[in-house]
Amino acid sequence: MKAIILLGTLKRTGLSNTEVLCDFLAGRMKRNGIESEIIKLVEHEIPPGTYSDMGQGDEWPEILKKMREASIIIIATPIWWNNQSSLVQRVIERLDELHDHLLAGQPSGLEGKVGGIVITGDSDGAQTVIGNLSNFFNAIGLLIPPFATLSVLWEGQAKGKETSREELMRKYESDYAGAADKMITQLLEHAQ
To answer: What is the pLDDT confidence band of residue 37, given thresholds at 50, 70 and 90?
Structure first.
């Protein structure tokens, strides 16, 4: 079983709470026989637009190909002002053409796949982001099973905090391992 994790951190370098949480989840997925690939969106040329291919230099078509080959698609985002990151919003915009296919009576290419959501932040806002992303998953044919979210809202992740990777991993392991495992169980149960 293959999972693609679209990592929406805005950080090109340095410690990213969301990236560490994705590494944590990927490690737990591996224990359950799921091969995962984390695609750090900020490292790719993904121009704005609402089509699957925006032309020369666009790396989105290759990412979309990997999504179509995977059984599980996870979107991982920090919360910024009660919303997903701008890079995750760009993913939504770039997948708009798949929604157009559905409206025209054609398949989106993502039917039968399951989706999950990973969120980091230091205050509330996860429910809004989960609602937005779940609605979007539904609109393009992805199934989001119950408990397929992993949200860590903790002051140790606040902007400007210097929490180490090791501290983050300890926190995730001690407080969120059960939630991660429940998410993985649900994804496996509903994946085709």
So the answer is: very high
